[in-house]
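From the methods appendix. Each design record in this collection lists the tokenized structure first, followed by the designed amino acid sequence. Records were kept in a plain field format so they could be parsed without special tools. The example shown here is representative of the layout used throughout.

RECORD:
FOLD TOKENS (355 positions):
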């Protein structure tokens, strides 16, 4: 059977079938619609202003590599007027992150963007290898997620940027909606579909790939012959997210629009006022100055638990109260450098930890 012509240009031979729409199109039309949809997401949400300094969260994987390439392309094509940077977090995972960072360093040269790498070891005094050695693989993704979020903000502070963009795609967001439903996590369910997030003391973050399917990101990287690292994190197979991912893939196989449908459902959720009233008010961590819902932020609580050999502290409320009951932290406890927002500016700075 002869190949069909592209349904969009009707001239070139169709080379692929879009997972998102089922259309059979040529490579050039795929590149155009992929990039245009991301551009529309950016403009509809008014993500940027001319002169913004934007850090791209770069892991070396397909999502962040395609994001860096597309952000550079759109910035030049539509004259966004952005200063773009690559920001990588080195979690300290031997045989995974050290290899992927080599990809990021090549991307730095390929895309001509400044690169900042900040490590867990530098910031927390622990690597993920050492954390997993102590706590095992049951809750290791909790440590990594909390530490990574704060590390991104601190790395952005060092770069003096206004905005962080991450490669979270439609599949990621749909998975998060499902996870929050399965866990009954009302607080996160109310905000997990937001394209922009920003706390009072944190740098603005956004997800330009919010409506972009993971399969299409892979296809874009393949046909553009982009340089990316494809190995999965060696500590992630046991993560809770994996169950939501498997469920979502089964839904997508039966109904490709399921991913976008779940995102739209999440956007439509409204949290009752009486539920909002029970949520903790955001405050400032008394130890490191980062945003927190208790006296200590999640990262400081987890770090103190590691230092004191109480590994589940910060994972459960019961473990946190048990640590508090055992008395104050030792004076020689390793702590996170103090985090302070500069008055009147979205940028932040890092200072020495207060006594």
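DESIGN:
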């Amino acid at each position: 059977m002869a190949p069909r012509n592209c349904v969009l240009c009707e001239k070139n031979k169709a080379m692929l079938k879009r997972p998102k729409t089922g259309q059979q199109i040529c490579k050039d039309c795929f590149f155009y619609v992929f990039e245009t949809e991301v551009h529309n997401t950016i403009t509809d949400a008014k993500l940027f202003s001319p002169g913004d300094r934007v850090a791209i969260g770069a892991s070396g994987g397909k999502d962040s590599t395609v994001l860096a390439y597309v952000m550079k392309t759109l910035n030049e094509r539509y004259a966004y007027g952005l200063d773009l940077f690559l920001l990588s977090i080195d979690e300290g995972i031997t045989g995974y992150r050290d290899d992927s960072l080599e990809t990021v360093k090549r991307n730095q040269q390929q895309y001509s963007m400044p690169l900042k790498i900040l490590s867990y070891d530098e910031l927390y005094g622990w690597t993920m290898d050492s954390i997993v050695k102590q706590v095992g693989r049951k809750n290791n993704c909790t440590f990594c997620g909390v530490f990574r979020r704060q590390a991104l903000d601190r790395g952005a502070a060092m770069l003096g940027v206004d905005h962080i963009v991450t490669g979270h795609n439609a599949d990621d967001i749909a998975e998060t909606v499902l996870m929050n439903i399965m866990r009954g996590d009302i607080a996160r369910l109310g905000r997990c579909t937001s394209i922009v997030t920003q706390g009072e003391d944190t740098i603005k973050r956004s997800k330009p790939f919010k409506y972009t399917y993971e399969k299409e990101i892979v296809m874009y990287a393949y046909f553009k012959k982009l340089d990316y690292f494809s190995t999965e994190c060696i500590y992630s197979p046991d993560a809770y997210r994996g169950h939501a991912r498997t469920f979502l893939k089964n839904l997508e196989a039966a109904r490709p629009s399921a991913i976008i449908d779940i995102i739209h459902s999440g956007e439509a959720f409204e949290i009752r006022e009486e539920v909002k009233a029970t949520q903790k008010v955001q405050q400032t961590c008394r130890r490191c100055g980062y945003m927190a819902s208790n006296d200590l932020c999640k990262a400081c609580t987890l770090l103190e638990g590691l230092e004191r050999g109480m590994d589940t502290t910060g994972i459960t409320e019961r473990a946190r109260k048990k640590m508090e009951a055992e008395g104050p932290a030792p004076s020689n406890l390793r702590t996170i450098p103090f985090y302070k927002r500069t008055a009147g500016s979205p940028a932040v700075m890092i200072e020495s930890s207060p006594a």
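APPENDIX NOTE: Residues 140-159 form the longest helix (20 residues).
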